[in-house]
Write a structure and sequence with these properties.
The chain has no helices and 11 strands.
């Protein structure tokens, strides 16, 4: 497992942008599949995006969000543009060893503490 710490959340108006960052501890960061999930009040945690050999996005964020990683800095990012009130949630970074095509929260074994994103209308 790896320790993950998210940052970059906050309050933004609809149509605005935020960039989340997730810093990972440990070695061989480049060998991890990294994902972003979110959980709104009263809802289940849902997949947002992940990066391994390829990148995959949830349909709800495709074209607006971009996941990227800097393996030299052990960091994965989530650039969020054209934010909508329905994007309001706690955003979590997650990791699993190996380059895997996984979008289910249960497949990831390391999680950050989460960062709140609030989009006002």
């Amino acid at each position: 497992q790896v320790r993950l710490v998210e940052s970059g959340g906050g309050l933004v108006q609809a149509g605005g942008s935020l960039r989340l960052a997730c810093a990972a501890s440990g070695r061989s960061f480049s060998m991890y599949t990294m994902g972003w999930f979110r959980q709104a009040p009263g809802k289940e945690r849902e997949f947002v995006a992940r990066t391994s050999r390829t990148t995959v996005y949830a349909d709800s964020v495709k074209g607006r969000f971009t996941i990227s990683r800097d393996d030299a800095k052990n960091t994965v990012y989530l650039q969020m543009n054209s934010l909508k009130p329905e994007d309001t949630a706690v955003y979590y970074c997650a990791a699993v060893w190996g380059w895997r095509s996984v979008e289910s929260a249960g497949e990831y074994d390391s999680w950050g503490q989460g960062t709140q994103v609030t989009v006002s209308s």
